[in-house]
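Folding Task

Wanted — backbone structure
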Amino acid sequence: MKNNFTLKGSVVPLVTPLTAKYELDAEALSRLLEFHRMNGTAAVFLLGTCGEGACLDDAVKLSLVKQVLKETPLPVLAGIAETGTGRAVNWARIFRDTGVSAIVLMPPTFQFALSPEEHYSHVCSVADAVRGTPLILYNMPKKCGGAIPICAIEQIVKEGLICAIKDSSGDIPYIEELLRLRDRYRSFTVLNGELRTAAQALSLGVDGLVMSYTNVDPASCCALITTASDGKSELAAEMQAEFVATWNLFPPAASPVAKVKSILAGLGLCSTLCQAPTKALPALLPDNIKSLVKGVLTYAAP
């Protein structure tokens, strides 16, 4: 499955804004999309971990994808985190038919793929079902029983079944293995999804970032990429440390999506509501976010 889709830069794993009835908050979604358009985000990734994709009603998922496709000029990626391959195939066909730019596929989240052969089979089944639609792999070991074996990824890349990977392992040696694959297969790109390894991963040469923090400070995430690409590794590390310090304002057990929605509520962009069992946090607007984020007040909720 050869395609020309290339994923690079700062990609937002967008939160799904919810109303008090846990339906899609369309007005808040419009504000979020404009916020990212104004602040340099390269693409919008829906229904990932931060987007609560595995928890949402089917109707909310479809409404979300359709509205984003209608309103943003940016590439739109739809995530699949399913319990088995058959369910993943069904969603892949649905998302293909909406016209998304690419599909982001996580390994099964309940019936784990436990061997390279099972990982390969999972990807092949989805790729065969949506030929012509770019496919991006999502490595999230904490949700899927472990990291995707490098040997399986190499076979998948070699056959042209995927065009990129989002790696959220935070494992630098693993990222280095992915980059060696990237160097052998130039149509393949590698994006880092873990905040605490962002600066180091960028210094190693990853093609971009897909971090939950991008939701709240997209301009600074773009600046981090530029800083690292300019070889200013110490400054990039300092920027990352400031991002981490913002997250550390919250209780250690707080969910990443709850942290993100807390700050977005402080900015007036959406509510704090999360899907159960995630507990919402009070709205919070850290000083560094208030001073750095551009163009927020224009889109603040009344």
In short: The longest helix spans residues 233-247.
